[in-house]
Amino acid sequence: MRRFHYAFKVKNIETTRQFYMEILGCKEGRSTENWIDFNFFGNQLSAHLSQDMPELDYCGKVDGISVPIPHFGCVLEMDEFNNLQQKFEAAKVKFVIKPQKRYSGEIGEQLTMFVFDFSGNPLEFKTFTNKDEIFS
Asked: What does the mean pLDDT of the chain come to?
């Protein structure tokens, strides 16, 4: 699978380092005082300093739940999902949407959870009961 690059806005470089490195376990790439790159599960994230953060819209309706748009995240293996949930809980990161099962008993059944990074960017992490159904 090809890797992606995603650039996004953050309010503070140091708190961004804290969230992405200490909590998510991302490795730091290149950086300056105005931006920082991370290895985000094998993909390149570029966090750029800005005081003009976009407003969120909870217009996304997924399995009856309103989700914040825009958001980004990662599809994880089940053990990675469980470990990350424990890290969030230990770090007292507030869940925007608590860990839960979506599409129970259906094609595409998955566990999902949403959190905000320390700049208020929503991230979704999910794992599929059957990883072959990711695009079903």
From this structure: 96
